[in-house]
Input
Amino acid sequence: GFRVAYGGAQSYFGVTPDITTMGKVIGGGLPVGAYGGRKDIMEMVAPAGPMYQAGTLSGNPLAMVAGITTLKRLKQPGTYEYLDRITGRLVNGLIEAGKAAGHPMCGGHVNGMFGFFFCEGPVRNFADAKKSDGEKFGRWHRMMLERGVYFAPSQFEAAFTSLAHTEEDVDRTIEIAKEVFALL
Output
């Protein structure tokens, strides 16, 4: 998708994939998907090749307009810098608050995508992630929900900020997290 960069993670990390898939992000959050790749792969798809592909919502006008509108917004100058700044502020604030309350914490982010774990870290792979305290995360998550802050229900899921989030939203989230960390 476009959470990491306008050209997707492939442009951010300098990777040229054989095939790229996009989910609902290209439809502004509406149900649609797309794929594209090397010419030899794409020539396998009908009408050029033997593989037939179709979908109920393929080319849905509402999804296409929403997707184009989203892409125009993402292309505006400063978009990814803003996401990087507020996401870094959130992740660093959460980790600092957790550590200040005596909890082992680590995490990181790439622009608007982030994650954090209840362990010393660093977490570089799934084996490292499994060493984190999942029960503590579960308690933390429930207590945050009770205070109106919604994170993904598993620390193994990526989390996201958006252009709608403000510095005030981030600061309020960190303050609520401080309260919850103190109660864990």
Q: What stands out?
A: The chain is about 45% helix and 10% strand. The mean pLDDT is 94. The CA atoms of residues 118 and 135 lie 9 Å apart.
